[in-house]
Amino acid sequence: MTPTGADDDGGILTDPMRTKGTAFTAEERREHGLLGLLPHTVTTLDEQVGRCWGEVHRQATDIQRYVYLRGLQDRNEHLFYSVLAADVPTALPLVYTPTVAEGCRRFSALWRRPRGLYLAWPDREHLAEMLRNRPHREVDVIVVTDGQRILGIGDQGVGGMGIPVGKLSLYTLIGGIDPARTLPILLDVGTDNADLLDDPFYLGWRQRRIDDEEYFAFVEDFVAAVEDEMPDVLLQWEDFATPHAAPILARYRDRLLTFNDDIQGTAAVALGALQGATDVAGTRLADQQVVMLGAGSAGIGVLEMVRQEMVDQGLTDSQARARCWVVDVRGLLTTDRDDLSDDQRAFAHDPADVADWGLDGPAQLGDVVEHVTVGVLLGLSTAQGAFTEEIVRTMAAKVDRPIVFPLSNPTANAEARPADLDAWTGGRALIATGSPFPPLHRDDGDDVSVAQCNNVYIFPAVGLAVTAARATRVTDAMMRAAARALGDASPALADSRAPLLPAWGEVRDVADDIALAVARQAVADGVAPRASDDDLRGRIAATRWTPGY
Ligand SMILES: NC(=O)C1=CN([C@@H]2O[C@H](COP(=O)(O)OP(=O)(O)OC[C@H]3O[C@@H](n4cnc5c(N)ncnc54)[C@H](O)[C@@H]3O)[C@@H](O)[C@H]2O)C=CC1
Ligand SMILES: CC(=O)C(=O)O
Ligand SMILES: [Mg+2]
Q: What does the pLDDT read at residue 10?
């Protein structure tokens, strides 16, 4: 509906980027022809925020809170971001993991309004036209998924769109990217989820996924169309299945401004958290045996950065690899397996390394923990409860401060619950999780927060950095710089009882610090124009969008 007042400016009341809702003043109501279209009382933004939080809390379930907040985002973006900013720790689990998983599962049933672009395979001849139909001309950041591996809940088809939408709202909340300059994209290439194919209300292209030859050709056409339409945009790949994620990154990382969040963002946050953890443990990463449960793109991506860090700390490449152990659904990665990709094979052990363990079949996680003095146990496996009491107690019997990160999302997929890890290790475990968990209770009555080791600490800051610095590529060194800057901000460095990662209340300031480190590295790597630290700081501040009328 367009108001028809004397100075009608084309629907300011219903434009989510410009509306103030009940906060339009009496003068503004007259000026824009809104008189009579709103209830009499003029409210402040703070009052609106209070009213909205009241509504959020009155909802019966988290998925209802998610639906309410998504609706608010579609109605009034300034108010939506003001609401999130007013209570980040409460808001984050509602717009992101774990609730967003349910939002993706029920995407078709919950459909309200369009947001972003749906690029479906049957429309592949019209990619350029579809990109030109984007709601906002100038775009700084795209998050794209094909919905095949959404968090740890598998193929959600078109419902995967919940993830780009959620991630981009955090680009704005934490990284200060103008919401009108963000674009969520869903590549709809079908789904292999039988429930969705049978669902009469499924809104995506109701076919099985296309084959790999067609798939990679479609992705190439998509990238080419993005290059034509938005040559400077940051293109973030999100929640692609492992067989597609690494090849896509390898193909495009030197061609445009792009990164894979699950591979590189996860690696950077994990390394940042490990910096605090090893400091508290009084060791170096290079002195640890590191076990990764899960050999998907996330697990291998993290280990690759762990390997680089160990080499930086003085190990040779082969010494570093020898300290990394990867266990997947079949067992330990060993060089005699014929089901490994090149990325996985790079972390496979010689079967001779485990020959004297006396095993009948492949070594499992329990075997590795029994025969190796494991200091760091990481989980990116989607396997709920895989860090069992026996495994954790065995590990904790050999090291003073076991570092245990169950990183799979959403909450139900976590490899262990922090309270259990804490109990099994007598409070010695240094813990970080992928999704939020309640704080740990201490005997002295204190509650200690559990760090949420999630790539949300990284991607908004990287987006802010490349936008501010006008970078043209995302280099490995830039992701390492992000990890170091995050690690430097670990509260555990100053207080060994504190969480391994900064509190959500500080996350925007930390994002500024990470962005400066990343931008500086972009300049050093020659992928951004020369600029002094002061220039970069100024540009980061100028890029930052904050909500308000
Ligand atoms: N905390 C964070 O920031 C992030 C967390 N993740 C989480 O990581 C998880 C994995 O993601 P991807 O690597 O893309 O998935 P993926 O499905 O490609 O890989 C899963 C891996 O775990 C292994 N696995 C599955 N069940 C297992 C079991 N019972 N025992 C041992 N290994 C098992 C599989 O063999 C495979 O190697 C997801 O839950 C995702 O939400 C991913 C990115 C970021
Ligand atoms: C956090 C994230 O990117 C994931 O679980 O896939
Ligand atoms: Mg992801």
A: 58
Indicate whether 363 belongs to any domain: yes
Once rounded to an integer, what is the mean pLDDT over residues 18-23? 98
One domain, residues 364 and 483: no
CATH code, domain with 23: 1.20.1370.30
Q: What is the pTM of this model?
A: 0.97
- Check whether residue 55 and residue 131 sit in a common domain: no
Parallel, antiparallel or unpaired: strands 440-441 and 447-448:
antiparallel
In this prediction, residues 495-523 reach a mean pLDDT of 97
Query: How much is the ipTM here?
Result: 0.99
Query: Ligand 1 site: residues with CB under 6 angstroms?
Result: 149, 151-152, 242, 262, 266, 269, 293-299, 327-329, 380-383, 386, 407-409, 413, 434, 453-455
Ligand 2 proximity of 433 Cβ (cutoff 6 Å): no
| Cβ-based neighbour number of residue 430 at 10 Å | 26
The catalytic residue positions are 96, 167
* CATH number of the domain encompassing residue 212: 3.40.50.10380
Neighbours of ion ligand 3 (CB under 5 A): 239, 262
- Structural tokens at position 2: 């367009």
CB atoms within 10 A of CB 107: 24
Examine residue 323 and state whether it is found in any structural domain, yes or no.
yes
**Residue 100, domain member (yes or no):** no
Residue located via tokens 């490899």: 415
pLDDT, mean over the chain:
97
Is residue 239 within 6 Å of ligand 2 at its C-beta? yes
| Segment 278-289 mean pLDDT | 97
Total structural domains within the chain: 4
